[in-house]
Each structure stands twice: as C-alpha cells, then as structure tokens.
Amino acid sequence: MSYRRHDALDKKGAEYWHPIEVSNNEEIIVLQEKKLQQQMAYLAKNSALYQQKFAEAGIQFDDIKTLQDLAKVPFTVKQDLRDSLQAAPPFGLHQTAATSDIVQMQASSGTTGSPAYVALTENDIEMWNELSARGFFACGVQPGDFVLHGFSMSKGFVGGIPCVQAIQYMGAIDIPVGADGGVDRLLRACADIQPRVIIGAPNFLLHVAAMAPKVLGKSANELGVKQLIVGGEPGGGIPAIREALETAWGAKVCEMMGGTDLGVIYWGECSEQDGMHMICQDHIIVELINPETNEVIPFEKGTTGELVYTAIGREASPVVRFKSGDHIIVTDTECGCGRTGPKIRCFGRTDDMLIVRGINVFPSAIQDLVLQMQPETNGVMRVLADFDGHTTQENLKVLVERGANQSKEHDLELSEKIQKTIRDSLSFKAKVIIVDADIFEKPGVAKVALTLRQTPDFL
Ligand SMILES: [Zn+2]
Questions:
Q1: What is the 279 CA–ligand 1 centroid distance (Å)?
Q2: Which pTM does this prediction carry?
Q3: From the CA of 397, how far away is ligand 1's center (Å)?
Q4: In contact, 395 and 361? CB cutoff 8 Å
C-alpha cells in the first residue's frame, strides 16, 4: 500500500474514477455474485458471529450463491454488532482477520454508550481509500486540489483520518484543520491557502460562512472556493440548505454518504446535482428494503426504502445484510454523467424517526419546511420529544426560532401558519412554539441534534 494510487494524477479531468462506475448491471451482478461466494466461504471459516447467525437461521454458507439467495440471510442490526463487540472486545465476534494483520481501527460516532469499533487490514484501508476517492471524485475533487477539511478530525470518526488518507490517495492535498480546529482557524486557512474544495457537515459550513465577515473582514463568497462537499447529516439534500450554502460560499454543493460499518463513502453526487450515485458495487452489495415489511424492492425512480449493505472482499470486520437505518428516495436510475449506479437522496435515519399517531416523521423534513419560511422564521427548529421512546399520540411539539428583527406580536399567527404547513405537507399535527432568534446552539463539531429530549430552561 502506498499513500497515493500510482495513476492518481492521470485521472485529472477524467469522467469517472473507476470503470465499475459506468459498467452495465449484468457485468456488475456477475462480479458481485463471484465475490459473494468468496466472502461466504471466508465467513464460514473465520466469522464466529456469522457461524452462529447462519446456524440459528438454519442456512449454509454455500447455499448463498446469488443476489436472490442473499435474501435468505437474516439482517444484521446495530444491536447485533453491539452484542458481538461486548462478547469479544475490542472488535467482536465478527473480527475475521488476525489481530497481527490489523493496522488501523475506527469508531462509529454513536449517540449513546460506547462507539462501535471497526478493524481494518492493509487491504481494507486500500479499499476504503479507493471507494472514498470515487465518491470525492464524483463530487468534484480533482487530483492536485487543495481540500479544506471541515469534518471532525478526532474521536475515530471516519470523516477524519480515513478522509485524509483517501484525499492523499487520489493525489489531492488535505488541509487538516478539522471542525475541531475551530471556525477561526478554518477561515484563516481558507484565506491563506485558497482551497478549491471544502468538505464538512452542511449546517456547520453554513455557520462557518456566517462567521467569515467577522473573522476575515470579507464574505465567504470572496474566498474563491468552487466546490463544497457535504455529508454526515441530511442537510445537503434539503433544497433550502443547499441553496443557502451555494449562495453563502459562491460554490457548487454536492453531497456524499456512507458510514463506518462498511467504509467511509459509498455514495457520491455527480455534477448533475440530482442525487448520490452508488459507486461501490464491486465492494458492497446494496439492497433496498421496505422498512415495514423487510421485503427487498427494486431501485426504481421515486421508490423509497431503507438501505441494507453486504461487504464483499472485506477482511477484518465484515458484515452481511447490515440494516443501515438510512431512509432514502431513488431520484433516478439513469444519469447524463454516464454512471450506472442508482441515484438517491437520504431523508432521514431510523434513529431520528418519530411516530406521531402512526405517521413516520423525520425531523429533517420539518427543518426543510421551516427553512423555507424565512425571514419570518430564522430557519432554525428543534423537535421537543418529551415522551418515552419514539411514539406519541399527542401533537408533536416543534420549537421554531422567530426570524431576526421580527416582532413577537405575530408569534401566534406564525405558529398557526407553520402548523398548517406541517399538516398539509407532512400529514401530522404539530404544536408549534415560537422562540427567540439564536436561542439554540450553533452547529459545531458535533452533528446538529434536531430532537430535544428535555424541555429547555427557557420554556
Ligand atoms: Zn451522474
């Protein structure tokens, strides 16, 4: 393994990073099924977790030969991995490579308790680099670019070191400040080095842009940034946030998505800006399921569902039929860029989903509506889920910041207007409470939590 792919610089200006991105479906299926059989044989030999799971389900590893066969395998959910990690720390019963072959570990940014640790061999790291390079390349990073790093660099979060490595691998230069380095430092680096690209969480990059006049005495759109690549939360796919980012920075926005359990980036948006392409078919089998029935459904334009991933060719911490918790809509299956992987937008995660009188509600969908109601609102909201679990039979409480310089006199009118918009667009009843502008914490290193579990002091 080396820092940089040997032919990285030759790819400048190319239409895609790897030929698999434009392969036809038949070729991809042949390759996936071959690698699936190899992976099953590898797991049969090395994975205590899957030996156990397959035995419990009464299935044999060598029965799983095709993509259709894969549907016979039970899902792996986050709790399975937590139990596995606890049973055999630090890497769990699903560690399948010798510890002497493991050269790196990473951790999921878990919201509660211990993070989930994953192990990587040298080959796994090279695979992660390759997949992330495809994602970054689709999103507009070119070899030779300076890339300002606005994701968190610490805590073992995959937006940190693995992204640095992937950017090196593709012949670009990472400016490793990180969200943890602070807004001032990021903006100074931006003014000094004039990167063409910035990567980071969308809400955080909006905040960084807002601080530019104060820190640098000029606005973010004067800094020469051409491309923003956002991920880690749904904001990049929310039209109002995307538009605000493009205006604030004078740059194009593309988004990417992945995770920690399979890699870093598995989905990258091309310059058509109409959703993120699957770009990893040779290393990850992705299935779309109906989250209510768990049935596999085809990737067709307009379909919604939850993503399920199977690693093929992973050495250290492979998972099979891992339920990602990412809920997506297929925006298209064809694209002018030539890539053949389906295009998606993610509209929420299972962890964030609330059920209000039987209706599934994602806080990001409410945020989208509130953002469109500027300047009457400040575009900032929180759901107040002051009940146990995820289900309520009451009207859902939503706190919305009043727009800056807007009078309190119109609060009642505004809350009724937002309640009506929510009812019309999202089919559930909300109780909207208007609060002062800038009362909620600004986005920083951590993801923006749109849901509050306790009533804030000011109410
Ligand atoms: Zn495309």
A1: 10
A2: 0.91
A3: 39
A4: no
